[in-house]
Design brief:
By secondary structure, this protein is of the alpha+beta class. It is built from seven helices and eleven strands. 31% of the residues lie in helices and 28% in strands. Strand 2 and strand 3 form a beta hairpin. The longest helix has 23 residues, at 80-102. The radius of gyration is 18 Å and the shape is globular.
């Protein structure tokens, strides 16, 4: 058991109403405090290969580390566990990129990625691309990650307003993905775990269809029933059009173990 807290996890992935196959892939392991979500893209139906391959690679590389106590502090820039997570993501990138180079039908395949680790009393979050992680603290839902996308970059540079970004044809042009280049630069954050907090990993098939306020309302309405919450979020995305694959993983932090 790697977390000081009781953890509750549930997930759901769905093809949606417009796509003929599902390129998302999700996984979770409450015992090891690990949750992962990937949204694949590129190649001839190879997005599902990239998403599955990346998550399986990361799980394999982190499994033994997550069975141990949290390492002591490393240098002041990044903790040892964050360094291990970064290495695992880079290894996944190498694996997907190599597979794309070997088969013409998989050339250019890649995937977004969100990884959440709850270890001891710490939360680590890594992401690449425009799949997201939200935190529900009390009744307030906030985005922990920020999309690696062209429109967000243009907004940061003052080239585009938020209103213009919403209607931009470049909404889904991402600036980072696992497996499309020889190197990837995952964004990693680390902070204290708080009992009662709820984390939501999701693909853009949810966030394109369902507003943040409605996501928050759904999580609050079925608080504690996370399998039901995951299904309801997928149902909402489909009710609003279901234009893409829809995936969610919900992680609830409960009381300290033994209490």
């Amino acid at each position: 058991m790697t977390s000081h807290f009781t953890l509750f996890m549930a997930g759901k992935t769905d093809t949606g109403l417009k796509r003929d196959h599902n390129e998302d892939f999700i996984a979770w392991d409450a015992e090891r405090g690990l949750a992962l979500l990937a949204d694949g893209m590129g190649g001839h139906k190879a997005g599902d290969v990239a998403s599955r391959m990346s998550i399986e690679s990361i799980k394999k590389n982190l499994q033994s580390a997550l069975e141990q106590p949290l390492p002591g502090s490393g240098d002041e820039d990044i903790s040892p566990l964050a360094s291990l997570l970064d290495s695992a993501i880079n290894e996944a990138n190498n694996t997907v990129f190599a597979a794309g180079e070997e088969k013409a039908q998989q050339k250019g395949m890649g995937t977004t990625l969100v990884v959440l680790i709850l270890h001891d009393d710490r939360v680590l979050v890594a992401h690449v691309g425009d799949s997201r992680l939200y935190r529900l603290h009390g009744r307030e839902l906030t985005a922990v990650t920020h999309d690696h996308s062209l429109v967000r970059q243009m907004m940061a540079e003052g080239i585009m307003t938020e209103e213009e970004a919403h209607d931009s044809p470049f909404t889904h042009v991402i600036t980072q993905a696992v497996g499309v280049r020889e190197a990837v630069d995952a964004e990693i954050q680390e902070f204290e775990a708080v009992p009662g907090d709820v984390y939501l990993l999701c693909s853009d098939g949810l966030t394109d269809m369902v507003e943040d306020a409605e996501i928050a309302e759904t999580l609050l309405a079925v608080q504690g029933h996370w399998e039901r919450a995951a299904q309801r979020l997928v149902d909402l995305a489909n009710q609003h059009g279901g234009r893409d694959n829809i995936s969610v993983v919900i992680v609830g932090i409960g009381p300290p173990r033994g209490k």
